[in-house]
Specification:
Layout lengths: L1 E5 L13 H9 L5 E7 L7 E4 L2 E6 L15 H6 L4 H22 L3 E5 L1 H15 L3 E5 L2 H8 L4 H10 L2 E4 L2 H9 L8 E3 L6 H4 L19 E6 L8 H13 L4 E6 L5 H10 L6 E5 L6 H7 L2 E4 L8 H8 L4 E4 L15 E3 L4 H13 L1 H19 L1 H17 L1
Parallel strand pairs: 1-2, 1-5, 2-4, 5-6, 6-7, 7-8, 9-10, 9-12, 10-11, 12-13, 13-14
Antiparallel strand pairs: 3-4
Amino acid sequence: MRVLLLTHVFPRAADDSLGAFLLHLTQAFAARAQTLVIAPHAAGLSDRENFGAVQVVRFHYAPDAQEMLAYTGVMHERVARGGAKILFARFGWNYFRAARRAAKEFQPDVIHAHWWLPGGLVGALVSKLTHTPLIITTHGTDVEQLRKARWAQPLARFAFGQARVVTCGSHYLRERLIELHAADAARVRVISMPVNPLFVNQNSKVKIEKLNLENATREFRILTVARLTKQKGVDTLLDALDILRARGIDARLRIAGDGDQREFLERKTRALRLDAHVDFLGARSQAELPALYAACDAFALSSVREGMGLVLAEALLCGAPVIATDSGGVTDIVRDGETGLLFPERDARALADALEKYARDSAYAARLARGGRALALERLAPERVAAQFLDSYEAATKS
């Protein structure tokens, strides 16, 4: 089967964490499908490259120095604020041209567009022109954008209306799409994104060296891995750390990630006088993450309405007990009291309570981590996810 995959984020190198799940997905079904990826160019990237059997073509939409929309994690925010609308229009036009050219030359059996905007809209236009079956996958930020922006709803209905299959990374996203009347419920399936095989192959031994509060030299180590944007809610995690330390728990937070909120978060850390207990690690490659996950006593994701939260599965596969916000798609992975702990959005005290449970009862934390690891292996292994997408491709070509 020949698959034309459209995305505005695709790894810039084999160990790039941005869009890494798309590389793992396409590599997982390489034996049964030939994939051509259309993605945006950015300074320093090649126009064409191969990741094993996966071919990538990157389209230009401005001079190199001005190609600053993709690979930032906040493209939709920049466009919504008004400063990049003209650049986004050029982005969309060149995206469409590249996708249409690829469809004519590659002759795909299906077009698989990730994120309904811009990829799904581009895919819908190309699908209509070439009569190629279309699949659209949503990831969270695009559904949240649709909820906030009424102007986008007619475009979304057109895009989803052209798709023969729509997939969502979580049940939460499926429910939101249907509530917004954006897609026909009969066409919407829940298929999670896959984790990196690197995490699946980690040693399954759950860490037993946990915090003993009677040992004053032992820190309780908290980790988060996230883009530093408002939606990720890392400020709530800083407040929770402050509360936790005030309760007498010698806790330390490591933050792996970068983004436009980093300066604000660093200022907040200083204001709370937590400088000596918070490490800003910057963005880390996929290869560096297993050691970080394995070294922590608790992994926390404080996002607001996360589409799925794949980092939670990565942490669980490395033996880390997890805590997440009780909202969005994370509840497909974190079942409160079974595979991890949940807390209400923006509730730093509740997050501190959950962290304290792990700090004071390492056996409880380890038990939940084992349950979470089993769930992640069952649902998110690349081969399992790839098989579900290949079934969807078959369904799209026959409908």
